[in-house]
Design brief:
Helix content: 10-25%
Structural class: mainly beta
Number of strands: 16
Largest sheet: 14 strands, antiparallel
Strand content: over 45%
């Protein structure tokens, strides 16, 4: 998290930060807060001189962390602003995302859910900027387990996932839930099936039939 970047990297990210209106510093700066876009006051430290308590670390490469610290690392609740415009808001343990958090991507996507060792793990929802979303289980940063995919056009599919892709048999419903299709491994939309058959597939997957 605190690795140094090359001078060229510094210049690139500092330009990005100026575009975003964030604070710009020549070297990593730990402070209490930002006022008028500039570091202000002293961040809290422990008797060993490590960051501990509450403070803001503004990186020369354009990133910034604000929140709680313990033994020199983010721990508790905090927000990490990336120079690219992305942002993570949530829980930390020993300097990595752990627990509940939300990651806002600069492109407009958003993940909200559980983290383990800095990766999506457990239950989470991934919102796409296009209007689609995935709700379900994650393992090591990828969708894995039971999941429901909501398409931007209103269609909904339930499947099991492995390594980020649908596996086995699933089912899909039209936006008004009046028509259903079988979904093959890989998420391929197949033949039309009855609503009763779609409900049986959902039961085998272990998920409820989507509501209207």
């Amino acid at each position: 998290m605190e690795a140094k970047k090359s001078g060229a990297g510094h210049r690139k990210y500092k330009l990005c930060r100026r575009i975003l209106g964030n604070a710009v510093v020549e070297e990593d700066t730990y402070c209490r807060e930002l006022k008028d876009g500039k570091p202000h006051g002293d961040g809290e430290i422990n008797d060993a001189g490590e960051r501990e308590g509450v403070g803001v670390l503004v990186f020369a490469d354009g990133d910034m962390y604000e929140g709680q610290w313990r033994a020199g690392k983010p721990e508790g609740v905090g927000t990490f602003h990336y120079a690219t415009g992305s942002k993570y808001v949530g829980q930390w343990v020993a300097g990595v995302q752990q627990g509940q958090g939300t990651y806002h991507f600069a492109v407009g996507d958003r993940y909200e859910g559980e983290y383990v060792a800095g990766l999506y793990e457990g239950q989470g929802t991934y919102h796409y900027a296009t209007g689609s979303k995935y709700e379900g289980e994650y393992v090591a940063g990828l969708s894995e387990g039971q999941g429901t995919f909501h398409f931007a056009n209103g269609e909904v599919a339930v499947s099991c996932f492995k390594g980020g892709a649908p596996v086995g048999e699933g089912a899909m419903w039209s936006a008004e839930r009046a028509t259903a299709w079988r979904v093959a491994s890989g998420g391929v939309k197949g033949e039309s099936i009855s609503l009763e058959e779609a409900a049986r597939i959902a039961e085998r997957v272990g998920l409820p039939v989507p509501g209207a």
